[in-house]
Amino acid sequence: MLWCKFPAALLGLALSLAAPWSPAASAPVKSVVIVHGAFADGSGWRRVSDFLTAKGFAVSIVQQPLTSLGDDVAATRRVLSLQTGPAVLVGHSYGGMVISEAGNDSHVAALVYVAAFQPDKGESLAKLAESKPVSGAEPGAVKATADGYLYLDPPAFAGAFAADLPAADATFLAHSQVFAAKDAFTAPAGEPAWKSKPSWALVATADRSINPELELEMAHRAGSHVRPVEASHAVYAAKPEAVAALIVEAAEAVSQ
Predict the structure, then answer these.
(1) Is-contact 21 106, C-beta < 8 A?
(2) Where is the AB hydrolase-1 domain (predicted)?
């Protein structure tokens, strides 16, 4: 039979070519894609990006529209499609909702949640936030525009989002925030990538936007590697070295 005469080496090559592509196994992970959260934009990630670039990583930051969860997932997949190799996908806050679904993309080797929501299928951001509210949160800090977009009231911004940043930096963030459609916060999540891919979670222990206990509970449920950091919700701006270090840890782990 021809099958019996097929050389073993060629058989191994044929099987390897036919196997599904595995980003983590095929090449070192040197790409990072970052998804910012709501009431923010990607500019606050500059120092994290600089740390990663200095270590040889190619960094892309998604500037998603925050018009709907589906639109934001699509925007993230658009950036992932441009990656030339496997990538670590990073999400902050609401960005965790986005990467949980977009992380199913074949380019994604690992997920990193930074003070982020880690939903299971069917959960929304609003449902998760209401399950364990922030103790002593200022009522009415989140306001709505006439056309149904949400924003964090600038006078409340520093206390809720960036208490450990210099006042001028917090003020800049408050006035450069991207407003989010209400529907983005109530949309149910799809099948989360953390069920099939390794994940890491940075818990901001002084967070006043997401209850740190909720961050920890979601991370444990997902089986994430947890790293606590004493910082506000804007940990990426307040402690960029710690955030970059966790991303490098994830990249090196899935490169082995």
Answers:
(1) yes
(2) 32-245
pLDDT tens digits for 190-221? 999 999 999 999 999 999 999 999 999 999 99
**CA R_g for the chain:** 20
Is the four-CA dihedral 6, 12, 13, 15 of positive or negative sign?
positive
* Closest listed residue to residue 208, CA positions, set 124, 114, 135, 129: 135
Please give the model's pTM, rounded to 2 decimal places. Answer: 0.89
Q: Are 26 and 87 in contact (CB under 8 A)?
A: no
Helix H or strand E encompassing 203: strand 199-204
pLDDT tens digit sequence for 220-238: 999 999 999 999 999 999 9
Spatial CA neighbour of 224 closest among 72, 129, 119: 119
For residue 151, give the H/E element and its range: strand 149-152
Domain residue ranges in the chain: 28-255
What CATH number has the domain spanning 28-255? 3.40.50.1820
Greatest distance between any 2 Cα atoms in the chain: 79
pLDDT score recorded for residue 26: 55
- Residue 127 in contact with residue 135, Cβ under 8 Å? no
